[in-house]
Automatic annotation (TrEMBL):
The lineage of its organism: Bacteria, Bacillati, Actinomycetota, Actinomycetes, Kitasatosporales. Belongs to the thiolase-like superfamily. FabH family. Residues 262-266 are annotated as: ACP-binding. Keywords: Acyltransferase, Cytoplasm, Fatty acid biosynthesis, Fatty acid metabolism, Lipid biosynthesis, Lipid metabolism, Multifunctional enzyme, Transferase. This is Beta-ketoacyl-[acyl-carrier-protein] synthase III. Residues 253-334 form the Beta-ketoacyl-[acyl-carrier-protein] synthase III C-terminal domain. It catalyses: malonyl-[ACP] + acetyl-CoA + H(+) = 3-oxobutanoyl-[ACP] + CO2 + CoA. Catalyzes the condensation reaction of fatty acid synthesis by the addition to an acyl acceptor of two carbons from malonyl-ACP. Catalyzes the first condensation reaction which initiates fatty acid synthesis and may therefore play a role in governing the total rate of fatty acid production. Possesses both acetoacetyl-ACP synthase and acetyl transacylase activities. Its substrate specificity determines the biosynthesis of branched-chain and/or straight-chain of fatty acids. Its EC number is 2.3.1.180. InterPro entries: ACP_syn_III_C, ACP_syn_III_N, FabH, Thiolase-like.
Length: 352
């Protein structure tokens, strides 16, 4: 039996404030009908002013730890690694993961951020799993969390229609590759030639180093929507198929559910078609939450598990695509986990 990282806890969190399409249509030249038919999104959740990504990450992390503890043991027992996937850290420097670890009562453990935009959660999972199988860590909390509402141009109907805030997390422990929950493989890739397609131009060393104020609008997130659509379908399909071929999920042992990055239902349908899967096999929750970036895949997974759509024993393929450009897939057989909706009252917020 070979050593593997095994998923043993799952949790997710979205902030309470809901913004339905109709509210966007009051502010922008758009309509509920356009957003629904072009993206499949009906509403999204948005943080309150003053809240930040770590607030969401802590809530999702707490639920994942409680889910891991539900089968026995203390919530935070043995966690020695926190990896946070995010492109909207609380501050440009330092990373947000150490604050999240401290607020979860895990202060002192290894903690760092991973930035791969919408592919961030799959990358973070791969990094944590590799550290566990190498023996560098024993038990990891892997979180995807983003608050894109903080970086969108208030006047941009395209991005405001798509993005929402949210977070999801899993707990990984070391175990054997033939156990339910074992991560069976990864496929990761990137194409820096497409870095301009999904970007926030200002705020990093490239523009800051000139000393000139950033051109108006460069502080906001921008995306070449149609080109990104094509790249998303192509790269998620290719990455997912590479991994399926590598781990031999064919014939009677083929994929049961695909949990893909939730950006547009038309992208999800196209990926399903490319993989020869039925619509029911592709998990969809973007209607309720929009594109929550690094939170998207674990949030969709948690919704699907809560709804009984992803069940113990299912062969589950996670696949994501995002800025960088980046893409990645992961595979596992779903374990029998207890989801814990709200284990304990909210922890204190970081005072700024
Ligand atoms: N309401 C009304 N009209 C709109 C809206 C809106 N919310 N948004 C765009 N339009 C308009 C455009 O302005 C354009 O008008 P024009 O023809 O007069 O110029 C028209 O609709 C068509 O624009 P397209 O961009 O071609 O529309 P499309 O059907 O491609 O939908 C969308 C746009 C939803 C952004 C789509 O391209 C998409 O989903 N792209 C992929 C997004 C994605 O996958 N992101 C994941 C990675 S993001 C990350 O990593 C953070």
């Amino acid at each position: 039996m070979s050593r593997a990282a095994v998923v043993c806890g799952l949790g997710a969190w979205v902030p309470p404030r809901v913004v339905p399409n109709d509210v966007l249509a009051e502010q922008l030249d758009t309509s509920d009908e356009w957003i629904r038919t072009r993206t499949g999104i009906e509403r999204r959740h948005v943080i309150e002013p003053g809240d930040a990504t770590s607030d969401l990450a802590v809530e999702a992390g707490r639920r994942a730890l409680a889910s891991a503890a539900a089968r026995g043991g203390a919530e935070a027992e043995g966690i020695d690694l926190v990896v946070l996937a995010t492109s909207t850290p609380d501050h440009p420097c330092p990373a947000t993961a150490p604050v999240v670890a401290e607020r979860l009562g895990l202060g002192g453990v290894a903690a760092f951020d991973v930035g791969a935009v919408c592919t961030g959660f799959v990358y973070a999972l791969a990094v944590a799993a590799s550290m566990l199988t190498a023996g560098t860590a024993q038990r990891a909390l892997v979180i995807g969390a983003d608050t894109f509402s903080t970086i969108l141009d208030p006047g941009d109907r395209t991005t405001r229609a798509i993005f929402g805030d949210g977070a999801g997390a899993v707990v990984l422990r070391t175990g054997d590759a033939d156990e339910p929950g074992a991560l069976l493989g990864f496929d990761l890739g990137s194409d820096g030639a497409g870095s301009d397609m999904i970007t926030v131009r200002a705020g990093g060393s490239r523009q800051r180093s000139t000393g000139e104020p950033a051109p108006e609008g460069d502080q906001y997130f921008s995306m070449a929507g149609r080109a990104v659509f094509t790249e998303a379908v192509l790269n998620m399909s290719k990455s997912a198929q590479n991994l399926i071929d590598r781990i031999g999920w064919t014939g009677d042992a083929s994929v049961d559910r695909v949990v893909a990055h939730q950006a547009n239902v038309r992208i999800l349908r196209a990926v399903g078609d490319q993989l020869g899967l039925a619509d029911e096999q592709i998990v969809v929750n973007l209607d309720k939450v929009g594109n929550t970036v690094a939170g998207s895949i674990p949030l969709a997974l948690a919704d699907a598990v809560a709804a009984g759509d992803v069940r113990p024993g299912h062969r589950v393929l996670l696949t994501g695509f995002g800025g960088g450009l980046t893409w990645g897939s992961a595979a596992l057989r779903w374990p029998d986990l207890a989801l814990v909706p709200d284990p304990t009252p909210t922890l204190r917020k970081e005072q700024s």
